[in-house]
Write a structure and sequence with these properties.
It comes from Kwoniella newhampshirensis. GO terms for molecular function: glucan endo-1,6-beta-glucosidase activity. InterPro entries: GH (IPR017853), Glyco_hydro_5 (IPR001547), Glycosyl_hydrolase_5 (IPR050386). This protein is an alpha/beta fold. It has two domains: 137 residues, no CATH class; 343 residues, Glycosidases (TIM Barrel, Alpha-Beta Barrel). 45% of the residues lie in helices and 9% in strands. The protein is built from 19 helices and eight strands. It has an eight-stranded parallel barrel, surrounded by four helices. Strand 5, helix 10 and strand 6 form a beta-alpha-beta unit. The two termini are 26 Å apart. The relative contact order is 0.13.
């Protein structure tokens, strides 16, 4: 837990250094702040608990037909419990967490389902498809807790993702069932079970500093009930978890609508968008280079607008380097295919780094065969994923005069622009915002654990906390001047990153 102690020490010793009157000492936000507000650069631990046959086919030996889901494995006979527990104990180990951390990733996304909680919470199965299979899944919870602890020992954050809800929130087997339809909305028992599972997870993990959040549902099929369900469920979770515990919501493939929804909220809620470019007919006929060009062109402006609508609280919870075979010219050498995947991956990383608050590659590994499009292990070996994904390296604390010069330069540019455009900016608002942003950016950057860089990611959410403190100390609300304080804060953050990252 060296990262946490380092953070506490730096926060208590930070001091402003500029010529304008400094604000009083900021109020510490707690040891979870770095983990939860930093830019998340992660990997999905796919098919560890929530199974997918194409990723880990070995687990499905003996599964009942159609042999695609956790439910099919559970129904496969008396050997199901042993098969699952053997898989849970071997699919991801301490060596894997070490590999992830050494390459600059700072977070993992852990997909689990409601039935994995049945050991300590038998009631979660009541009235659901999995009620007869308590004995099969009762050993999952202890292993989930161990996984979270092990990730934390390597400085990795963990996003807990409810990948499978009772009845299935989407028709795909990764939601736990193989029947190809959505039954989540069909019964009260399904929704009650899911609510119970989420409240239990929040009560268990909200106090764990390196658990960066809880995702309510993975890829739910969108319908008219979903937003109301989000509202109600968020309120329920907030009854057992503090308001600064991040809750992640899937965009249900309606990104702009839910970006606007997130942007209207004041609590720490994050939008999860999944970006794949290998499934539609149009995508299948574009090369990796063509995809990269589009991501750097028209799509960039669309994506940036969606991130802005969500007040910067948008992440890409799943993406990959996979391209459909039709994307490649017949007879193209494997090396050229990898070159296209490499360009495709780099264009996505550039997009996410410049606009999103975080991203998680899908997935960590596959069980059979080579697949540099979907397996991060294989993609890293082929140098499709860069050997280091952790952003710039922190060069160390700059001298005090560097901050003074950056603040003076930013302040001059700010006042000159707005005076020339008919406004009357207030330097007593801009300057403390800039100073706070600079100081806080350095707290984040210097909190790296040697294998990853901690960079502020949820800037506006962090700024809102700091603004409330500033208003409390100043004894007044900023009101219409809020934009100017936030503008200074964001410029302070960007200046510190520009100066201090190699």
């Amino acid at each position: 837990m060296g990262l946490l102690n380092k953070f506490k020490d730096q926060l208590s010793s930070s001091s402003p250094s500029y010529d304008f009157p400094p604000p009083p000492h900021p109020i510490p936000l707690g040891p979870s702040a770095i983990f939860r507000y930093r830019k998340q650069r992660g990997i999905n631990l796919g098919s560890w608990f929530s199974l997918e046959r194409w990723i880990s086919p070995h687990v499905f030996r003996g599964a009942a037909e159609p042999g695609q889901s956790d439910y099919d494995v559970a129904r496969g006979g008396s050997d199901a419990k042993r098969i699952l527990e053997e898989h849970w104990d071997t699919w991801v180990t301490e060596d894997d967490f070490r590999w992830i951390a050494e390459r600059g990733f700072n977070c993992v996304r852990l997909p689990i389902a409601y039935y994995h909680l049945c050991g300590p919470l038998f009631e979660v199965l009541k009235g659901t498809d999995f009620e007869p299979y308590h004995h099969v899944f009762e050993g999952a919870w202890g292993r989930i807790k161990q996984a979270v602890e092990m990730a934390g020992s390597y400085g990795l954050g963990v996003l807990i993702d409810l990948h499978g809800a009772a009845g299935g929130q989407n028709p795909d087997a990764h939601a736990g069932l193989s029947r190809g339809r959505v039954a989540f909305w069909d019964t009260h028992a399904n929704q009650a079970s899911t609510s119970l599972a989420l409240r239990f997870l929040a009560s268990q993990f909200a106090s764990v500093p390196h658990v960066v959040g809880l995702e309510l549902l993975n890829e739910p099929q969108n319908n008219s009930k979903l937003q109301g369900w989000y509202n109600h469920t968020i309120d329920e979770i907030r009854s057992v978890a503090p308001p600064d515990f991040p809750l992640y919501l899937s965009d249900a493939w309606d990104t702009q609508h839910y970006a606007d929804y997130i942007g209207r909220r004041d609590d720490f809620v994050v939008l999860d968008h999944h970006l794949y470019r290998c499934f539609t007919g149009d995508d299948k006929h574009k090369s990796g280079v063509a995809h990269a060009k589009e991501l750097r062109g028209h799509f960039k402006s669309v994506f940036a607008g969606q991130c802005g609508a969500a007040k910067g609280a948008l992440v890409v919870g799943e993406w990959s380097g996979s391209l459909d075979p039709q994307s490649f010219t017949p007879g193209l050498p494997d090396g050229e295919k990898d070159a296209q995947r490499r360009e495709f991956v780099l264009s996505q990383i550039e997009l996410f780094e410049n606009h999103a608050a975080g991203w998680w590659f899908w997935t960590y590994k596959k069980g059979d065969g080579w697949d540099a499009g979907w397996s991060a292990r294989d993609a890293s070996t082929a140098e499709i994923i860069p050997s280091w994904v952790g952003g710039g390296r922190f060069k160390g604390m700059p001298p005090r005069e560097v901050k003074d010069a950056e603040l003076q330069s930013g302040h001059h540019a700010h006042t000159s622009y707005w005076q020339a455009n008919g406004e009357s900016p207030d330097p007593t608002v801009y300057a403390p915002g800039f100073s706070q942003g600079w100081d806080d950016a350095l707290i984040f950057l210097s909190a790296g654990n040697g294998t990853s860089t901690s960079e502020m990611g949820f800037v506006l959410h962090w700024a809102a906390r700091r603004k409330a403190e500033y208003e409390g100390r100043a004894g007044r609300k900023l009101g219409k001047a809020t934009w100017e304080w936030e503008h200074g804060f964001k410029q302070g953050v960007e200046a510190a990153k520009r100066v201090c990252l190699a």
